[in-house]
Amino acid sequence: MKRITAMLPLVLTLAVSACAENRNILPLGKDFGNSTTHNLSQHIINPEPVTAGYGAPALDGARATGAMQRYKSGSVIKPTEESL
User: Fold this and answer.
1) Is the pTM above the cut of 0.90?
2) What does the buried/exposed string (b/e) look like for 36-72 if buried means 16 or more CB atoms within 10 Å of the residue's CB?
C-alpha cells in the first residue's frame, strides 16, 4: 500500500502532463491531404467506364484495317533492321 501511495503523485503528474497542449506544432492546413487524394484518384481505374460496351473505335484507312486483321490473326510484321 505504501508503494501505491508513493507512486500516486508520479502517475497523476504524468496524466496531467499528457493533457497539456503542445503549442510548438503548427496546425494543419485546410487542404492537408489533397495531394494524396489527387494522386490516388489518378491511379485508380474505373471498373465500369462510361465508354464500356461501345465496341472497338472506328478505323480509318487500309493501314488501320490491316493492323486490326493482323492483331486478330496473331501474325506480326517483322520490323526492318536499322543500319548504323
Assistant:
1) no
2) eeeeeeeeeeeeeeeeeeeeeeeeeeeeeeeeeeeee
